[in-house]
């Protein structure tokens, strides 16, 4: 085991997977010589050469579109979009083709493609560099959306995503890239898609979250523990299709649900979680569901950034609200 | 790199069917007959499809009449291991890749199961979102180059697609990476109601190739020999030297954009008239009469044979069982996730059925 940050874990995973599967190709802007603007692909060009580590022209649509073609041809492309805010140039390729080609060809062609992108706020970045657009991808029939919260999960989930026969949108919370290091399993390591992780067990309330908000919710759970409130924290890991059993099992046990994401509040992943819980275990609930989320606003620049995404204090208040209902 | 002007138009057979015999020496009599047969079949299939649509027996579809030479010529030029990425007005090219007429009826009749490409056809499904499939041709060519496979990839799209960002991005990728890809533009002069001169200010479409450092050529798209020879030569160049090309095929959309369109709102008979005299099927027939002993009897025989084939495919199409409503859940993912299993189950309940 080595102590790695998330971005190092991603880099190590790409190195290991590319060494054992020559179908894997990495492409994107500045992924080669520069090693990616966050250094996630550093060293790959030297090791695997320009045929498999491809610095592309500045053209997101054709990065994803050509990756679709490569996937159809039997390769396993991993496309990097430099920031989540630039993914929309490629949205037509994702929406009209990557997600549909399996069905449009009646199963003759699949699109085993991973689209990686740095994701979310918290690094005082420029405009279009702090967005949380996961719902815009989760809502597309045929896609899977994965957001890791730890370096180990980044490795295990990226491995499963690259091995998955369908297209996975793999969003990497940039605030976690170098926030902390942990022991990451060496060699083959998989975290199955669609399986949530119980970060912390508890009996009084369930907090469902993912990505950059997991550590925020963990801190809140630790805080209320000192008050004698036991909160269960669930990290979805796969945002869609999410682990419905893990959610309903926990809510059935605790009777209270808090959902936390940094993405805009309305019509987001939290809304779907709330709807599923209402359909499947409403009568287990002893209090209204509480959402702690970003606002329905354009992510503010650095001066107001911290006021938009949830912090531990807000989550603590939400726990109080639901427990004291 | 010299830019193509309107004067550049490769033609080996004029509208009267008079051909430069030396230029077409490499095309055997059997191949010439095959071209005629496929072009005639495409026209008969297309005519039948339009009539089925008018009778409510088929959905909306785009007529390919007038573009049979471009379609069949480019399709026959492909090698068996080459890949083809069509748009949606390419029935003729698809027939050359083994597409089953009954499957095309099935798809355009509203049943997705008809969209399955034939096995080993190396052909993508039709592309409706204009020009986006050029990126896929690029990706397939990148895959082939990475693996060292000696194949070429061809896309086909219309003049409207050259206005798309994906056209620019794809040609740029092809130039930068020196990919084995040929982009065919069937310039039929219309993107629904918008004429070519409102689509682009360049004199020709082929001259756009210069901006990407790739080869650009311009051919008479109603001359099947010119189309075939040009595509074949440029596919060979792509395969052997990794030189990409843009080919403009100058042709004309003789019918409405689709069966939902009314072209009389934006174009006149005077505009179409000159193109009737350039008809690609008539042109090849005149050539065959002059050079290969083709006559009215043979023509009648062929038409009867192909019409019977088309009619048989209509019968087969109409005898197909309807898709089960739960078919819509198939092939969404390699493995059906829980939410779709739930929704499929809900569908079965709606139908009063139990899980199959």
Summarize the structure.
Chain A has 325 residues and is an alpha/beta fold. Helices cover 36% and strands 20% of the residues of chain A.
How many E-type strands of chain B?
A: 7
Question: Can you count the helices of chain B?
Answer: 12
Helix content of chain A: 25-40%
Globular, elongated, flat, extended or rod-shaped: what is the shape of chain B?
globular
What is the CATH homology-level superfamily of the largest domain in chain B? Answer: Thiamin diphosphate (ThDP)-binding fold, Pyr/PP domains
Strand content of the residues of chain B, in percent?
5-15%
Architecture of the largest domain in chain A in CATH? 3-Layer(aba) Sandwich
What is the makeup of the main sheet of chain A?
7 strands, mixed
- Ranges of chain A where pLDDT stays below 50 over 5 or more residues in a row are none
Instruction: Characterize the overall form of chain A.
Output: globular
Order of helices and strands of chain B: HHEHHHEHEEEHEHEHHHH
> Regarding CATH, which class of the largest domain in chain A?
Alpha Beta
The arrangement of helices and strands of chain A along the chain is: EHEHEHEHHEHEHEEEEHEEHEHEHH
The CATH superfamily name of the largest domain in chain A is Thiamin diphosphate (ThDP)-binding fold, Pyr/PP domains
> How confident is the prediction overall: mean pLDDT of chain B?
96
Global structural class of chain A: alpha/beta
Pfam families (chain A): Transket_pyr, Transketolase_C
InterPro entries (chain A): THDP-binding, Transketo_C/PFOR_II, Transketolase-like_Pyr-bd, Transketolase_C
Keywords (chain A): Oxidoreductase, Thiamine pyrophosphate
Organism (chain A): Desulfomonile tiedjei
């Amino acid at each position: 085991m080595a102590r790695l940050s998330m971005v190092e874990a991603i880099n190590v995973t790409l190195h290991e997977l590319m060494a054992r599967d020559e179908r894997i190709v990495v492409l994107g802007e500045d992924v080669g010589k520069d090693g990616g603007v966050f250094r996630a692909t550093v060293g790959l060009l030297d090791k695997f050469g320009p045929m498999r580590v491809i610095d592309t022209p500045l053209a997101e649509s054709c990065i994803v579109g050509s990756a679709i073609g490569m996937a159809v041809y039997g390769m396993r492309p991993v496309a990097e979009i430099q920031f989540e805010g630039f993914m929309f140039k490629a949205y037509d390729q994702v929406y009209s083709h990557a997600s549909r080609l399996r069905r449009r060809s009646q199963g003759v062609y699949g699109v085993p493609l991973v689209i990686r992108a740095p994701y979310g706020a918290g690094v005082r970045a420029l405009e279009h560099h702090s967005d949380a657009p996961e719902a815009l991808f989760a809502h597309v029939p045929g896609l899977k959306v994965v957001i890791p919260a730890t370096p180990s999960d980044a490795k295990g989930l990226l491995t499963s995503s690259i091995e998955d026969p369908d297209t996975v949108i793999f969003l990497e919370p940039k605030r976690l890239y170098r926030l902390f290091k942990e022991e990451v399993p060496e060699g083959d390591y998989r975290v199955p898609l669609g399986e949530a992780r119980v970060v912390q067990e508890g009996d009084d309330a369930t907090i469902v979250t993912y990505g950059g908000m997991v550590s925020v919710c963990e801190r809140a759970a630790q805080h209320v523990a000192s008050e004698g409130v036991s909160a269960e924290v669930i990290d979805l890991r796969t945002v869609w299709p999410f682990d419905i059993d893990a959610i309903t099992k926990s809510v059935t046990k605790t009777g209270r649900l808090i959902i936390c994401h940094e993405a805009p509040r309305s019509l987001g992943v939290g809304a779907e979680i709330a709807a599923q819980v209402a359909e499947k275990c409403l009568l287990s609930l002893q209090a209204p569901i509480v959402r702690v989320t970003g606002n329905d606003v354009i992510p503010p620049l650095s001066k107001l950034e911290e006021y938009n995404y949830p912090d531990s204090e807000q989550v603590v208040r939400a726990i109080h609200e639901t427990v004291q209902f | 790199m010299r830019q193509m002007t309107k004067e550049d138009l490769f033609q080996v057979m004029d509208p009267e069917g008079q051909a430069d015999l030396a230029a077409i020496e490499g095309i055997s009599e059997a191949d010439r007959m095959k071209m005629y047969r496929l072009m005639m079949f495409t026209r008969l299939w297309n005519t039948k499809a339009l009539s089925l649509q008018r009778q409510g027996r088929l959905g909306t579809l785009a007529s390919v009449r007038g573009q049979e030479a471009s379609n069949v010529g480019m399709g026959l030029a492909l090698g068996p291991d080459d890949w083809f990425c069509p748009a949606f007005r390419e029935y003729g090219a698809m027939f050359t890749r083994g597409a089953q007429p009954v499957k095309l009826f099935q798809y355009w009749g509203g049943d997705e199961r008809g969209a399955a490409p034939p096995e080993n056809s190396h052909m993508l499904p039709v592309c409706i979102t204009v020009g986006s499939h050029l990126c896929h041709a690029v990706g397939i060519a990148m895959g082939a180059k990475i693996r060292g496979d000696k194949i070429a990839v061809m896309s086909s799209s219309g003049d409207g697609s050259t206005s798309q960002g994906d056209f620019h991005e794809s040609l740029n990728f092809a130039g930068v990476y020196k990919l084995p890809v040929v982009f065919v533009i069937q310039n039929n002069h219309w993107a629904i109601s918008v004429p070519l001169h409102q689509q682009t200010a360049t004199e020709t479409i082929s001259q756009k190739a210069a901006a990407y450092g790739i080869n650009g050529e311009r051919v008479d798209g109603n001359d099947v020999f010119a189309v075939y020879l040009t595509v074949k030569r440029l596919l060979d160049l792509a395969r052997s030297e990794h030189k990409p090309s843009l080919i403009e095929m100058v042709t004309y959309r003789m019918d409405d954009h689709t069966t939902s369109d009314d072209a009389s709102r934006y174009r006149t008979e005077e505009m179409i008239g000159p193109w009737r005299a350039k008809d690609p099927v008539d042109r090849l027939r005149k050539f065959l009469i002059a050079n290969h002993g083709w006559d009215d009897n043979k023509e009648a025989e062929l038409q009867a044979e192909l019409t019977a084939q088309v009619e048989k495919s209509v019968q087969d199409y109409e005898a197909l069982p309807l898709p089960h409503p739960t078919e819509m859940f198939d092939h969404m993912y390699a493995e059906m996730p829980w939410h779709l299993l739930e929704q499929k189950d809900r569908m079965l309940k709606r139908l009063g059925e139990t899980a199959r």
